[in-house]
Structures are given as C-alpha cells and as structure tokens.
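hey so i finally got around to running the thing on that chain from the lab meeting. sorry it took forever, my laptop kept dying and i had to restart like 3 times. anyway pasting the input first so we r on the same page abt which one it is
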Amino acid sequence: MNRWAVILAGGTGSRFWPLSTPTRPKQLLPLINSESLLENTLARLEPIAAAERTLILTSASLARAVQKAAPAVPFENVIAEPKPAGTAAALAWAASEVVRRSGPDATMICVHADWAVGDDDGFRNVLLAAERVAVMDSALVTVGVVPTRPDPGFGYIQPGPPTDSGARQVTRFVEKPDRAQAEWMLHKGYLWNSGIFVWRAGDFLGEIRDLTPEISEALAAHAGENASLEDFFAAVSPVSVDVGVLERSARVRVISGDFGWDDVGTWGALRRVKPEDATGNVTTGSVHVRDASGNVVHSEEGRIVLFGVSDLVVVSRAGVTLVTTTDRSADLKSLVESLPPELREVP
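ok and heres what got predicted. didnt touch it at all, straight out
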C-alpha cells in the first residue's frame, strides 16, 4: 500500500503547566511512560508506516525539539508551520507534499501526537480498516471512538446510514456539548470525534478545492511543484478541518473504534491512563501519600507529601508548585493566560 502517516504535533498543552511550556509542550513530555507522547505515537505507527514515510506537522518554534525527539524521521519530513492556521491548512499542505512525492492515490493516516492508546494492535487494525474504506469509497474517513462516559470535553459524531464498504455516513458533527447533551448522545449511539482521519491525498485535496475557499486559492498558488510554505500559510484563512472540510463534504464516512483512546487533555485525565495505587492516586517522582485518595501528583524535583486530602493535582517543577483539584485542572489554560510572563515561562 502506498501509505503515509501524518502526525499533528503543534500546540503548547498549557493545561499541563507548569510541566508543559511553549518550548516544552505536552507532546514532548513523558506523561504516560518513560517516553514522550510523540515517541509513543511514532512507535505505535511504525508497524504500518515507516519513519521515512511519516510527516510531522508542528510549529516553527518547536521544529528543532521535534527533530530531536524523532531522529528517525527525515529532516524534510518535519513540516514547520510559520504560524498557526488551523488543521485544514496543515493537512492540506501535508496532502500536497504526499501527492508531490507519491502521487494522488497515496493514502494518509492522520493522527495527533498527544494521545494515550491502551490497545496498540486494535488501534492499528482500525486505521487499516479506515484505509480500506477510504480507497473503496473514495471517501474521507474519520474514526469515531466508542464513548466510555458522557464527557462534555469531547466533540461527537452522529453515525448515519451504512454504506457498502461497511462504514457509516455521517449525519452530523457536534461540538463540545454540555453534560446533559453528552449523556443523551451516549445513549443514542453517538461516537467521540477522535480527530483520526484517513483518506487518499488526491481525494482530500479535491474536497479542499471544491469546498474550502479559506484554503483553496492559497493551495493553487503556493503548493505543488512551486511550493512555498511561508507564502501558503500567509495566504490562508485559519479554519479547522472539521469545519472547513468534513462538515461541508458529502464524502465523509465514519467507522467506530474501541482501543482505549484518550486525548490526555488535563492533569486529571492521567487517572484514566496511568496505573493507580490502592487508593486511586497517580504519582510520578518522589511522592509519599498517607490517608489520601484520587490525587495526581508529579514531582520533577524534591519530595511531595500528601496527607488526608483527596482529588487534588499537585505538580512541582523548577521551583514552581501548582495545587488545584482534578476537576479544575481542566481550566488551567485560563489560569496560565492570566499569569505574569516570568511565572508562566517556567524554565
């Protein structure tokens, strides 16, 4: 199979402050095991997509750090976006690169670098099933994860009628709902919108040209044989691939996946993806707990002792200590934005 993997590895992961910073974002941190989330992603994909046929999309400020974390990926395969322009532009540029190198029939398996996956074999099997649908139906395929809880932090997909390939049409995408809506959608068979996409590069670019004016003119002028990354990103209007392409296309299909997926979006989420002790604490580093339960504790230096508390997040790094609750850890982005620069930029 003429196949490429595309890994989206931008963003700062501010919800993991103070461990994560603009120069050391979430995807480059060892949050789940001893390797970074990006290294986990590359290892997970390697059996079906070699490093030389993997593109990593990241910001210009992170390109050097990404190359260091992924030395097997060729230098020219790390695409450094000069400014944020949304996932539609990033994936359009990647598709034009795939077409230039391998032709329009090459498939693209597109994932994010900052996920946890419990069943790597199951994950790969679903990706390959999505690839078969993409080729058979000339479709843009997304993988909808079977929900395990009514989580208002995720987007949702309503599956529609089945197709001959075994996939389902998509009735609608739903942005992050409130908890009552999420509960209702869980019982109605909606799927989590994982952000996993599989398509042939030419099919995706065709939909961009027909449906996405925010990108199409810049694509025609600045991609292909006379490619200019800087000019392309300067000319596009930022839009997500969900809004700019998938919600406008009649060629979208969804298949379901159940492989222990989590987007690891907050400190509190680590309780779902890391081993807990007997009372439900997740700890990293030199940590001692007594009569404490349901806490997430990370010590990069020094020692942390918890006594008689529950459901806290405690993180210590470089002389800065964060204390919040597991619930409020979802709001860290707003906290970080309010901090003075000398505190926000933990060295």
